[in-house]
Design goal:
Order of helices and strands: HEEEEEEEEEE
Structural class: mainly beta
Helix content: 10-25%
Largest sheet: 6 strands, mixed
């Protein structure tokens, strides 16, 4: 059993940590399915502790289109173009992969972490 001094120290550290609303961390995806992210030598987070932002999941986005196609030959003789205008739905399918570096935010209380985005090259 820990002595009273150690218990008071732990309670003080826990109180300070509980007062921090958010902290940013960096991690490395160690497994995509099931999702696991390593944030330190001693801590790997599993799916139960992770919340994913849209930046790291499959999603559909609207993209405005307003262009004319390049001329094309039809029947070997005629040249024609097509005008494309409107809104296209584009599926962005870039789930996390093992080895990717990510930016996480620890939610207040420290039990859940939001994966905000991937880190760019060289970071």
């Amino acid at each position: 059993m820990a002595n009273a001094v150690e218990l008071v120290k732990k309670a003080a550290v826990d109180a300070v940590e509980a007062g921090k609303p958010v902290s940013l961390l960096f991690g490395t995806v160690v497994s995509a399915a099931p999702l696991a992210v390593n944030i330190s030598q001693k801590m790997t987070l599993g799916e139960a502790n992770l919340v994913l932002s849209q930046n790291v999941t499959r999603r559909t986005v609207d993209a405005a289109a307003d262009f004319e196609t390049e001329p094309a030959l039809t029947g070997g003789e005629q040249e024609h173009r097509h005008t494309v205008q409107g809104v296209l739905q584009v599926v962005v399918n870039k789930p996390l992969e093992a080895g990717e570096r990510v930016i996480l935010a620890r939610m207040q209380g420290g039990k859940k972490f939001i994966i905000l985005d991937r880190l760019g090259a060289g970071l």
